[in-house]
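User: Hey, quick favor. My workstation is busy. Could you predict this chain's structure for me?
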Amino acid sequence: MAERLQKVMAHDGIASRRKSEKIIQSGRVKVNGKTITTLGTKVNPHKDEIEVDDVPLDKEEPVYFLFYKPRQVISSVSDNKNRKTVVDFFSDVSERIYPVGRLDYDTSGVLLLTNDGDFDNLLTHPRYEVSKTYVARVKGVLSNDDFKKLRTGVIVNGNKTTVDHSKLVQINSKTDTSIINVTLHEGKNHEVKNIFKAIDHPVTKLKRISYGFLTLHKLRAGQWRPLKKFEVDKLKEMAKKQLKNG
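Assistant: No problem, here it is.
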């Protein structure tokens, strides 16, 4: 049965559908020896020979991992500056995994990795976003008006952005900093940092402590564990429910 090339690539764990489309357009994909750059090209995944960067697609079983990303690690499969990446911590995993979304280089915490492109697309598409909670150390002490702005929305890059929940955890008068827990479901780059910057309380340290119902329980920085089947199923349900409510 014929399917769109980017869908087949996503199913086989190359990347999400959106990322697969970019890979196709860049001329990195061959079907039966012919370079394909046209989106929407139909292929038969059981008969056609598909190569990405001259490497044939392998039929891998989907795998899913929860990782405690340390700071100063790149959320990517490679880095042109030879910095450490998240996949460097998975040397014992044979599947071609990649991160679901990203965390900034200097941000630590919960990060998911998989080779399931549809799962990646479901969790990272703006219409499906699952809520995530961060603990942020910010400069200064937030006023009631600052917390009101977080609830009602601040302008970030020309768009109004709100948080689902925010809570003051601690104030350090000596260093003039505050510890804030903040939950949001959007996943734009530098979102948490940009939100606090917009209210004049820049972030000095950031950690993602939960992804939906998943936490860092019993994991130390640099450690990971496979997700259980019920956890994968529940994440999919949460994402689809978010789409329905949206």
